[in-house]
Design a protein that fits this description.
Elements: H1 12-15, E1 21-23, E2 29-31, E3 43-46, H2 50-58, E4 69-70, E5 79-80, H3 88-101, H4 105-114, E6 126-129, H5 134-147, H6 161-176
Helix pairs in contact: 3-6, 5-6
């Protein structure tokens, strides 16, 4: 069996570092290529709600990478990255996950406390190449119950890491945008 990359199961602190987050224009954060390295990462199936997937499709603006062309000083120094640009839902989900993990523990705690009665609806299915976030979600869960033991029974933490990520990014999207995702 092959040796797995250290990035295949990052910790919560790893996800908050500049190895997994990059600041683009101004205050905008996005994920680095470590979130989508097809050589060292496996494909996982996420099941966000259909309502959330529809919300992602309705967002305006580009839904994939901006450009895969790197302009060099001379034509010989210019290059085009191999491979097609990422498609909409997986790229947007990675971006939402990166932005969620960039939040402080206090902000996440407040988000969970405000939405303690959240009930997810019917779920869709998205295949996505990404790191296994089991370790990061476990660390987040432990930090949250240290801060507030009541969060032990929150709907976001009732199942394994993949459903937990889906519920957490849905909650995050409900407060992040000018036209937020409606949880109800």
């Amino acid at each position: 069996m092959g040796r797995q990359s250290a990035d295949s199961e990052p910790s919560l602190d790893d996800l908050r570092s500049n190895r997994f987050l990059v600041r683009t224009s101004g205050t905008h954060l996005t994920h680095t290529s470590r979130w989508e390295d097809t050589k060292s990462l496996k494909q996982h199936t996420l099941r966000p709600t259909i309502k959330f997937l529809n919300f992602l499709n309705k967002k305006t603006g580009p839904k994939g990478r901006r450009s895969n062309r790197h302009i060099g000083a001379t034509p010989d120094d210019s290059l085009v990255r191999a491979g097609a640009p990422t498609r909409s839902a997986p790229h947007q989900l990675r971006s939402h996950m990166a932005n969620f993990f960039a939040m402080s523990d206090e902000e996440i705690q407040t988000l969970l406390e405000r939405n303690s009665d959240y009930k997810p609806g019917k779920k869709g299915q998205v295949g996505i190449v990404m790191p296994n976030l089991a370790r990061a979600v476990e660390e987040l869960y432990r930090r949250m119950i240290e801060r507030n033991p009541e969060l032990r029974h929150h709907v976001a933490f009732k199942r394994q890491w993949a459903p937990a990520i889906c519920r957490l990014i849905e909650l995050h999207a409900s407060v992040r945008f000018a036209k937020p995702f409606d949880l109800n």
